[in-house]
Amino acid sequence: MFENLQNKLDKAFKTLKGQGRITEINVAATIKEVRRALTDADVNYKVAKDVTDRVKQKALDRKVLIAVEPGQLFVKIVQEELTDLMGSEAKPINLKGDPAIILIAGLQGSGKTTFSGKLAAYIKKQGKNVLLVAADIYRPAAIDQLKVLGEQVGVEVFAEPDNKNAVSIVTNALAHAKRTNKKVVIVDTAGRLAVDEVMMQEIEDVKKALNPSETLFVVDSMTGQDAVNTAKTFNDRLDFDGVVLTKLDGDSRGGAALSIRAVVNKPIKFMSTGEKMDALDIFYPDRMASRILGM
Amino acid sequence: VGKTTVDEDVLDELEDVLISSDVGVETTVKIIKRIEARVARDKYMGTDELDTILREEIAGLLSDSTGTAITERADFELPADKKPYVIMVVGVNGVGKTTTIGKLASQFHKRGKKVVLGAGDTFRAAAVDQLKLWGDRVGVPVISHGMNTDPSAVAYDAVKKATEMGADVVIIDTAGRLHTKVNLMNELSKIKRVMQKFIPDAPHEVLLVLDGSTGQNAFIQATEFTRVTDVTALAITKLDGTAKGGVVIGISDQFRIPVKYIGVGEKIDDLQTFDKMEFVDSFFKK
Ligand SMILES: Nc1nc2c(ncn2[C@@H]2O[C@H](COP(=O)(O)OP(=O)(O)OP(=O)(O)O)[C@@H](O)[C@H]2O)c(=O)[nH]1
Ligand SMILES: Nc1nc2c(ncn2[C@@H]2O[C@H](COP(=O)(O)OP(=O)(O)OP(=O)(O)O)[C@@H](O)[C@H]2O)c(=O)[nH]1
Ligand SMILES: [K+]
Ligand SMILES: [Mg+2]
Ligand SMILES: [Mg+2]
Q: What is the ipTM of this complex?
């Protein structure tokens, strides 16, 4: 996509140069192409507009139009802007507390349970004693799913299949973790929509009961324009600490990453890149910028 | 005095609505051009008329028929001449395939049909358990070979057993797979081929499930799944949230595949047949 865009921009700039009428108005046309490309990459259209407004200013400041390779410089400016927006460098997970408590939340099917298993494996590798907690009391076989993953990564899973109260489950889990000397507790929760008041209240209550050192919001990288609404509501309710982007082993551009960052200003901490338990990466903003731009 | 052009403001606003509903730039431009053409021809007068034109144009892009007879029937009904009617459900990870199967089974079951489910997701942790729980909820049998078995063998066995049991419909669950995974995509073709050894024209329906909150990637999903399995119908899930699922307009338009079902929740009755006008109207609701 972006190779296309770069070609288009190169061409546009050539024409402009030929005409000898290089003005702010001319830049606006190329800016429109960039905005379109970002929207096609699922960047929220309002965020795309803000980004391109800033790109435009930078392009004018850096005299892109009299550059030798204006198309290339322009692309560079766009990429820098995206990388900056996404936080310049990787942010590590906070494992303070004894035990450190990590709460996992997000929409249905975004990849929470899979990520919980992966994170448990990742932390266990650091030599820490981990407990996984099954707090999804709704989805059919949610507990079994986490148990299978727990077994795969060799981490104990706390579950109370007959308990239909998530707050009570996590409270009991915490007591169990202390008793068994766990250093890190990872709590997998049910998927929920931001508009579901009962479910949003539940996760708020779960958070209160846990007082986690880290609350992570898990988002499917294929998410479209709605990513901003969801992220905003979850952040309003949970004030989460970071974002996990999943299913990046596919070919989605992942524009949602940019939108979420722009709207809630929380760092993206992990990228999930497959169904297997080792398919986890920490997040690199520059790589994500390139990905969104299709480079 | 009638106007022959639409206000720029009105079009800008429309563009925002469409883009924020995930319709995508290309389809949005297409819709706006069609409206401009209609306005030029019909001499647009007021906002109300524009509204109607707009809804008509969008609905016009949503396909009615795949050109095959199976889609000519009323939804949640099964063609009389195909017994058992074989439905294979496909899609990327976590979109709602298994849940949609549970809900669909319930709809058929409620209408007095004999339903059999095939546990063809033998890969994802507890996928078989999940489908079995749905089978219990609905009260229909689930054919399974357990986890980590060959999904083609499960599908074959499911259509065979369904036939022996005199079932009206058999619905095959498959593991979620990203369309970029070549081996997994080829596996779908294989599942199909193996079923055809028992019922030559199976599957009669390939239902591609799309998550309503997915953006432009859904387009590539449709392209790739269509390529390996000849998708005949679409289901869009999770429309009970704020996401609009607009990308399906371009998909339905380009591939001429009808949207048959929408998922509007996690409960057994949260499946509806698709209504174009309601769908389009939802874009304009706050
Ligand atoms: N390809 C791929 N699949 C993934 C990834 N993460 C999760 N999945 C798959 O996505 C699907 C949904 O993942 P889950 O972990 O069950 O998602 P969840 O958020 O716990 O779902 P609910 O509990 O139903 O809300 C499963 O098929 C997973 O195997 C990933 O990074 N890549
Ligand atoms: N709100 C809402 N949730 C849904 C809907 N359909 C499915 N879900 C939820 O989405 C999550 C994933 O659903 P599944 O049916 O497991 O999805 P799948 O495509 O079978 O997933 P994999 O087999 O892992 O690829 C579950 O938590 C479902 O309850 C829907 O229409 N609305
Ligand atoms: K909706
Ligand atoms: Mg889960
Ligand atoms: Mg499934």
A: 0.95
